[in-house]
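Cross-posted from the bioinformatics board.
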Amino acid sequence: MEEKIRIEDLPGPKSKEELDEMKIPYEEFCKKIFDPGNEFSKPQALKGIRWMSCTMYIFTPHSVANLAELGAEVVKIEMPRMGDPMRHTSPFNEVYLYPLHDTRPTVGTGLGYTNANPNKYFITMDYHRPEMKEVFYRLVKISDGLTECYRPGTFDRWKQSYRYLQEINPRFIYVWGGGFGYGPKIFGGSYDILGQAHAGLASITGMPEFMGGYPVKHTNWAMDWYSGTLITFAILAALYWRRKTGLGTMIEFSQVQAATRILGYGVPLYGRFGIVRQRWGNWDTQLCVHGIILCGKSDYPDADNPQDREETRYVMVSAFQDADFKALCEVIGNKELYKKYKTHKDRVEAEAQVEIYAALERWAADKSRSEVVRILQDAGILAEPVKNMREVYESEHLRQRGTIRWLDDPTFGDVLVQGGYSTGLMSKTPRRVNWLWRPVGADNIKIYHEMLGYPLSTIKEWYEKAWI
Amino acid sequence: MCDIIWCKKCNTVNYLDPYCFWNWEGKVNCAGCGTVYYIHMIQGFMYKGPEERPGEKPDISPLYADKPLEGYKCYLPGTPGRTRPYNCLPRSKYLGKAEMVKFSIRGKPVRGWCPQPPSSGLAGQFPYRWDIKKLSPDVWQEYQEKIKKGEVKDW
């Protein structure tokens, strides 16, 4: 007789009632302590920390955005009239939020600026001018740290590197974040894609060439976001160190170096065997089945938007354990496949994977994405559709946990945000997004006049000379 | 990087955009004179063709074409009978200028459209809360009407 897996034999709840009984206490507990949407009634972990941000693009601004979302007072110093170049980078030509600056009413800030700059105060200063040095130093005296992203040694030339600033404020934490750092390529700048290429990450991402692929960059500047987050870790550790010793630190963070952290087993593999790791695309070198497959039919064949009409055809499937793989083979009506590759060691071989994924895609060729997901989930196999942005927006899971939410931004109105709430929940001191960003120099008066006490006439003079 | 079909009949350069033609086999029309060419591309390289296929129907049109010898006169994406439309554009036609929205997809007013009134602050200072009722009364009015019609949603 054919062996069948009964639902009663599987771990977990056996009925809806049992599920409710099992989950309610913990579920209610979590809902109560995290309470998404009620962040503003709670304290902020980093309140009292003041950080200066001489940063541009995504990588270094994001390292400071993390602090700002956790409650630090971050002063972002931008180029007068111009602002961070990232403001001028936008996908398509209509997604700018206006104005960029008072003097440029027809120029806006692109949505590409999102998530790297929330909650910051925006001032302008041409800090390399000798006339503005005193202002800069005064900010240093009352701040806990600074992040900058200029070519190595530039701030040193301008007498505002760690060597100089620690004389003014010994508790000062100084972060340089950039491309290569000191060493043979000290003058090399970096972009996210350069980091991915230089560190070898792009070489192991995407499908191999014989399968129609090529080295692929992780999209959306993943290396910028990731490196920025790693800087934040270093800053938090430096703050902890300062509590113990009373002394500041210099953090020197090379982006191309950071990318090597996620090479996985690639480097030790080479060290031991001399094998250069190759790409394996949407499949997995260590697990099989554990990949993304293409289904024959779209979930929304009549949709106007090509992203819905053409692209909603991908499903991630994971069934690498023997029992799961057996169930998968039964579902797709190919028991021979299971007989052939009974052990994981057999399945994970390259030739086996080619055969297995081809069989899966043949089975899915006459099915839509949701049909495939439903059939696999009903069989107890881990499967999820590869969602697009609209589906992320409509995801009940993300909405309930407050990951995706609408913000009434004080300057820009109704905006959809996700970044600040994507980083894990904290029961006592949750992250929060107060505003998306503000126009260039929007907080000049707040910082120069209200915080540092410069008279308005002086500020006006600086402004007219374009020093701020 | 993309390959081209330079049609010698009408001196039109048809650009074979890599997103579509990277691995592709079939017939493409010339945007200038409509001559049908067979091509087979593998990994972005022209493996076979272009070979003329008179009398046959094309499978696809190029996305863009121009005439470098005639002052770069060009056929933009979506010229009927010549080039195919660019599918991923957010708008039906490429207008080349910003489309300002006044409301988000859930019907609440957004701000930050162009042009903006000056901040009226010193040194670029910007008020903390931009009161849409006072500063954009027309949008506020439109918003009230949307609320009445039930077009404003939570999500």
